[in-house]
Specification:
The chain has 194 residues and is of the alpha/beta class. 34% of the residues lie in helices and 28% in strands. It has a seven-stranded mixed beta sheet with strand order 3-2-1-4-5-7-6. Bound molecules: S-adenosylmethionine.
C-alpha cells in the first residue's frame, strides 16, 4: 500500500517534510477539508478523535489513497471527491480546518485557489499548510532558482520558486505560526482569515 510517489518522496520527507507534517497535521479539528490529498500521505498524521467529518479532494487522486482510508477504519464520515481547488463545490464558510501540503507549487492560478480556500473556510477556521518555497540561504536559493525552469519542464507543473507566504498574505490570510524546515526550503504553519 505504497505508491511510486511515496517512494519518490522518501528522501524529501526525511529532509524536513515529515517533521512539518508531525507538527501541523494533528491540529486539524471539526469539519476538515484536505486539498490535493494525492496518495493520502497525511492520513497517518491526523488525530481523528478531534475530527467530525473528513473530505479529501484532488484533481487526480493516486489510487492508493482509497486503500489507505479503508485501512484507517474511520468511525467518522470520510469521503474522497475529484475536484479542482480553483472551483470548490462547497458552500461558503463550510470548514473548520483546511489542510494542504505541497499543492500550491502546481496550482495554475494560486490567487484563485486561495480565494476559494478563504471562501469555504469558516470565519474562525484555520488553514494548516506545508509548501516548498525558495530557501533563505543565498547559495541554496540561487541553486533552486537555477534548477526551477528545468524541474518545471520535467515535472510538467511544479514551480520551485513561488513565494507562497506572500500569496497567502495578499489573499487575506494572517499567518499565526510559521516554521521553516529542510534548510528553510519547506514552509509550514497555521493561517486564519484576516
Ligand atoms: C505534489 S502532490 C502532493 C500530495 C500530498 N498532498 C503530499 O503532501 O504529498 C500535489 C497534489 O496536488 C494535486 N493538485 C494539483 N493541482 C490541483 C488543483 N488545481 N486542484 C486539486 N488538486 C490539485 C495533484 O493532483 C497532486 O495530487
Amino acid at each position: 500500500m505504497i505508491s511510486f510517489y511515496d517512494i519518490f518522496m522518501f528522501p524529501l520527507e526525511r529532509m524536513g517534510i515529515k517533521k512539518a507534517r508531525k507538527k501541523i497535521i494533528h491540529l486539524a479539528h471539526g469539519n476538515v477539508l484536505e486539498i490535493g490529498a494525492g496518495s493520502g500521505v497525511n492520513l497517518k498524521y491526523y488525530d481523528f478523535s478531534k475530527i467530525e467529518k473528513m473530505t479529501f479532494i484532488d484533481s487526480d487522486f493516486f489510487e492508493v489513497i482509497h486503500e489507505k482510508i479503508k485501512k484507517k477504519n474511520c468511525t467518522i464520515p470520510c469521503e474522497t471527491i475529484e475536484m479542482d481547488i480553483e472551483d470548490l463545490k462547497f458552500e461558503d464558510q463550510t470548514f473548520d480546518t483546511i489542510v494542504f501540503s505541497l499543492v500550491f507549487c502546481s496550482v495554475n492560478d494560486v490567487m484563485k485557489g486561495l480565494s476559494e480556500v478563504k471562501r469555504v473556510l469558516k470565519p474562525e477556521g484555520q488553514v494548516l499548510f506545508i509548501e516548498h518555497v525558495l530557501p533563505h540561504k543565498k547559495g541554496f536559493r540561487k541553486l533552486v532558482q537555477k534548477v526551477a525552469p528545468v524541474w518545471f519542464k520535467f515535472s510538467k507543473s511544479c514551480h520551485l520558486d513561488r513565494d507562497f507566504e506572500t500569496s497567502m498574505i495578499s489573499s487575506g490570510f494572517t499567518i499565526d505560526q510559521i516554521y521553516r524546515t529542510g534548510n528553510t526550503i519547506f514552509t509550514s504553519g497555521i493561517a486564519r482569515k484576516k
